Amino acid sequence: MNRQRILGYCVRALLGLALLPSAVGAAELPAGMAELRTRLASGVLLWGGDAEGGAPFALRDPHHPAQVIGFEVEIADALAAILARRLGIPLRAQFEQYEWDTLLPGLVKGDFDVILNGYEITPDRAGKLIFTRPYYVYAQQLVVRADEKRIHSLADCSSLAVGTMAGTAAERFLKQSSIADIVGFGGQVEPYLDLELGRLDAVLLDTPIVAYYAAPNPKLKLVGEPVDKGLYGIGLRLGDKLLADALDEALGELIVSGRLRDIYRKWHLWNSDQLELARNPNLSEERRGLGFDETGKPLAESQLPPVTPVDRHIIAASAQLWTFDQYAPLLLKSAAMTVFLSFTSMTLAVAIGLVVALCRLYGPRPVQFAALAYVEFFRGIPLLLLLFFLYFGLSHYGLSMDATMTAIVGFGLNYGAYEAEVYRSAILSIAPGQWEAARALAMTETVAFRRIVFPQALRTALGPMTNDFVALFKDTSLVSVIAVRELTKEYLILSRSSLKFVELGLLTAGLYLAMSIPLGYLSRHLESRWGQGRGAADNS
């Protein structure tokens, strides 16, 4: 017994010694780091980005489409590993798919911790968020068709159509350069596709984008020198200085160790401009990390440690890697989200529509006016505006919903207005003789409506309601703006990563047809079944 007790003491002592370093490390953390450790106790650092045509920043792996790869994915993983070591907690970086145009509102709302997606450090963003130290130096590169003879620089494009991404530094530079015809796109794949087809004369985009979408394309060529050099930084919410400082230190470590340089070399993004990331020339170690020797001279490529480069033509290579069994499960999963949103939203819309229709037909005058105002308001505003208001606008007043719930409520409110009118017209189509017959049988108004009028009105309303349901299936594509990945958004991400627009488009269209066509058959079946005795009822 004493031997067992002594053994127990020894085990507890050994465990205490093993845990002592971590306990001491936690106790020695400065106040700010301790607060940051508490904040990241969940073990996940969420970073927002858009993988829709996002090479080389973040894109779907052609070999494993369910995974996201890219040089910023590797940077995020490396930063999380450094923070985990310094804070003494397990921590991993997790990518959050978000529309590029709504990254800033998503950050402010709190859907993720940082923006890491080729986000340019620009003056107009200075008052809206804070940036870490830069992690990449980019420039703008002009691209034209391979057989283009007129254009040798941006100065030759003053009267020509030049494409770019909307809301980027490239678009602002084009406006400053007095380019008359600027065509903005939501993604970085479409400008080059339109350029190939002759719809554009040139495209101006950031050099990392050019390296993967234009340089490998034999139909396109680069003209002129890169212009308008700028910086990418990690964006954080205003006041989030603790995390910003920690990321600054982590980025400094990546630079010092040479890890950041190796990532850029792997993705064919390393160039002499990146030497500017070393802001302190007195740190010889930092300069060596960026590719300098101890005397300050640049190292030759042969002197740098070897890395395993990715395929520079990964976009073109992915075309040969496309297989049905890789991409179909991802589309099916997103189709399930589309089905869920459609059924739940339509259920809410039908319930709202019935209440509003009854209020408008049988309520007192103020209630009728309120019901009419509801119908006119929600039918008169764009659905996209409603989703933005519910998701981003209400969050400023403490009324925050997750993206899926926002989509259901938004679609329910919008389609509820249309269903109210469907119900109202169906109820009014019932012949007055039906009411009179019900009164002759001593039925109250409520009983007559529930047993006689409403069942017949429902048969009339079934057709228009089915049409609205099919339309709702397609309108669910709008929810991608509030970070819900449904079928259309998944198609856009996969097709822009693989360039399989036709194959994936046909598969996606087939899924939509598989969801909507059965609704038409069900509607016709119910109309046929419920309408068997309708003719006799109408004759009476």
Walk me through what this model shows.
It contains 20 helices and 12 strands. With 540 residues, it is an alpha/beta fold. The chain has 3 domains: 40-134 and 234-319, Periplasmic binding protein-like II (D-Maltodextrin-Binding Protein, domain 2, 3-Layer(aba) Sandwich), CATH 3.40.190; 136-232, D-Maltodextrin-Binding Protein, domain 2; 322-539, MetI-like fold, CATH 1.10.3720. The strands form 4 sheets. Strands 9-8-10-7-11 form a 5-stranded mixed β-sheet, sandwiched between helices. Helix 3 crosses helix 8 (241-257), helix 12 crosses helix 15 and helix 17 (445-475) packs antiparallel against helix 19. The model is unreliable at 9-27, 280-288 and 535-540 (pLDDT under 50).
Structure keywords:
D-Maltodextrin-Binding Protein, domain 2, alpha/beta, 540 residues, disordered C terminus, elongated, 12 strands, MetI-like fold
